[in-house]
Amino acid sequence: GRVRGDAGVTVFHAEMEEAIGRRHVLERELRHAVERGQLRLLYQPKIDLASGRVAGMEALVRWQHPELGLVSPAQFIPVAEDTGVIVAIGDWVMTEACRQTRIWHDAGHTDLVVAVNVSGRQFRVHDLTRRVRAAIDGAGLTPSCLEVEITESAVMSDVADAVRMLGEWRDMGASVAIDDFGTGYSSLGTLRQLPLSTLKIDQSFVRHMPDRAADRAVARTIVDLARALDLNVVAEGIETEEHAAVLRDLGCDLGQGYLYARPLPPADFLDFVSGRVPA
Ligand code: C2E
Ligand code: CA
Ligand code: CA
Ligand code: CA
Q: How confident is the model at residue 185 (pLDDT cuts 50, 70, 90)?
């Protein structure tokens, strides 16, 4: 590394201490977040690119802390994974997402599929399948209304476990999407072994599609791969009409992004769905 002056080192230490201090606070406070009712879910619509219909929604967790304010999942999910609190958070997210989806089904939006994110650490919890099943049954939903999103990197870090777990979910009737697809290192051989329903094109490719031929080529390759493997394909991070047009031309099935809607509180999501698909 580069030699830094005393002042630089001092600043560095101060920043380190601040980061470590914040980490400790997050760890301590996160342990109580579920029982204190500080978590909530937002729902981002998934749009059928051909028809404009709302096909479903992704549940995205938020942590509202009285002093820390709104903490983003990018900050607290890694902490939750390291400390094991992710298991309790994951149970809460799954249960709450199923409960809310049942309410929307009862309101007449019976086709909505809810997507729930599952992190790498949750994956290694042995009774995850039973927990997922309990959330679905508890809400009185059919398993086909649930899609589990798991990142490509989490799957690839333990392929044998992934094949077993995904198989259990498929047998149950739930579907599985590989999230952030294109950023990990799956081999075609591995992909073929996995009982998947959906590939989700990472937003890093979508963002620069209009001006980068290479990113368009990656997106096209993922869509073609999905076709070949008989999977659905979803694009995330659609922010402009141009993004949507390129993806529609490629034959991408579903899309989500700020062009359509940000992640919404439940009441706003219902308004959004009702505007497009009158009950
Ligand atoms: P992800 O699963 O890849 O989710 C997509 C992220 O992109 C979300 O950030 C979403 O709000 C954001 N996004 C959606 N549309 C757009 C867009 O058009 N442009 C841009 N720039 N961003 C967009 P969020 O909600 O902050 O979540 C971040 C990550 O945290 C998620 O990435 C997921 O990995 C994780 N996460 C969120 N909720 C949960 C959860 O309940 N459980 C677990 N295990 N992880 C979660
Ligand atoms: Ca996701
Ligand atoms: Ca993603
Ligand atoms: Ca991501």
A: confident
User: What was the pLDDT predicted at 278?
Assistant: 41
pLDDT in tens, 154-168: 898 888 889 999 999
Pocket test for ligand 1, best of 86, 236, 259, 260 (most atoms within 8 A of CB): 236
Q: Which residue do the tokens 């700020």 mark?
A: 258
pLDDT of res. 189: 86
Average pLDDT over residues 6-22: 72
Query: Would strands 232-235 and 54-65 be described as parallel, antiparallel, or unpaired?
Result: unpaired
The DSSP line for the chain is: -----HHHHHHHHHHHHHHHHHHHHHHHHHTTTTTTT-EEEEEEEEEETTT--EEEEEEEEEEEETTTEEEPHHHHHHHHHHHSTHHHHHHHHHHHHHHHHHHHHHTT-TT-EEEEE--HHHHT-TTHHHHHHHHHHHHT--GGGEEEEEEHHHHHHTHHHHHHHHHHHHHHT-EEEEEEETSS---HHHHHHS--SEEEE-HHHHHTTTT-HHHHHHHHHHHHHHHHTT-EEEE----SHHHHHHHHHHT--EE-STTT---B-HHHHHHHHHHHS--
Per the CB < 8 A criterion, the answer to whether 177 and 196 are in contact is: yes
Q: Would you say residue 64 has pLDDT above 70?
A: yes
Instruction: Say if the ipTM goes beyond 0.95.
Output: yes
Rounded to two decimals, the pTM is 0.93
Find the mean pLDDT for residues 109-118. 97
Closest ligand by atom to 119 CA: 1
* pLDDT of 4 strictly over 80: no
Q: What residues flank ion ligand 4 with Cβ within 5 A?
A: 180
